[in-house]
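Weekly modeling sync, notes
Attendees: S.R. (lead), two postdocs, one rotation student

Agenda item 3: backlog of single-chain predictions. S.R. asked that every request posted to the team notebook include the full sequence so nobody has to chase files. The rotation student volunteered to paste the first one in as an example of the format we agreed on. Action items at the bottom.

Example entry:
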Amino acid sequence: LTIAADACLPETLIIEEAAKMPLVHLERLCRRFSKVLMISSVENYEGTGQGLREKIQDLVSIHKQYQLNHIKRFRAGDPLKQMCDVLSFQACYSHTHSDDAEMVKSLLKAEVRRDFKQDTLSDLILEFYDDHNISALRGDLIKLQTLYHLLNQTHYQTNIQDLRRLFDAPSQVFVLAYDQEQLVGAIWAMKEGGLSPALTDAVFQGLRRPKGNLVAQMLTGQSYFPEAMLQCSVRISRISVIKPLRRLGIGQAMVAFLERKLRDRQDFMSVSFGLTTNLLQFWESMDYQIAHLGFHLDKTTGLHSAVVLKDLACSEKQDWMGEAVRKFQADAALNIQYREYRPEILAILQKKALNGPFDQRDQQVIMAFQQAKRAKHTVENALLRQK
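Predicted structure, as returned to the notebook:
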């Protein structure tokens, strides 16, 4: 931006199709004008899509918000619109929680909320799907439609390509939570790792960047730990609960159920998310530990991506996970000195920071930078510890 960072211009800035722009850019623009009007559709194909709706409030204050409920893009009964609605799971969908507002209002009372939480968790029915029984889920179009709409209404990462992944992507894992036969929560996860030593080494050296295996590649190519690609893991990609029933323990119940299903079958669990204090507290409450912080701001959230891990195998081969946590703490001690962060992120790093020595992990990434094609920003902290 060519406008000074400390400027606050008196003009009104109007941003058309705001969801096409990375949220970090929207944040910067909003801080440079006294009034900003953002206009956008959020139908999952614009760029940041649901990120604008779900995450912009984490970055800037929204004073007024309006929503167009009746789209004028097609005339009533348009056959092309009807076909598109069928293909995108929009046709004949009725929201089963029409009394959301009344439910939220009643749950504001502490005693009602406490009793409601106990009843909801005791009545919760959880279903698990992976490659062994995924055909049962994919063969139930009503269940798939309900799942997609839950994700579309509640999770910022949802996009139109999810429809294809729901039907044919391999190595998917799902947990569906039902209360009184209504879908109230879901986890969408995917299997990662179990890759060859040759490919793992190529990623560590910066020579390869294959599709998929997001966290496994992040810990290998951007952090210090190729073990993440060699071992088998499951990464939670989405976790959603309908808004009236949030903070009642449904999310924790789904995660615990998933861990029980995967224990002794996978080495560890991972999650990558836009780092905020509340989200970190949520995962730490279930014994997940932060092991990596992304170098760049995510375009969909405007936040740094954090990686948290939880050991499922509980064996000596998992010693690297404790090492990863300590390495994050050592990096945090340097990051707060040499990088700029938002106050909330800075406070998290200051709390986690713990100086660490130069070690073999540092030496290995420096060699990968000097002798291969590993990116420089992934070794800067190792170079600082070497001094």
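Discussion: group reviewed the output briefly. The first strand starts at residue 9 and ends at 16.
Action items: rotation student to repeat for the remaining queue; S.R. to check formatting next week.
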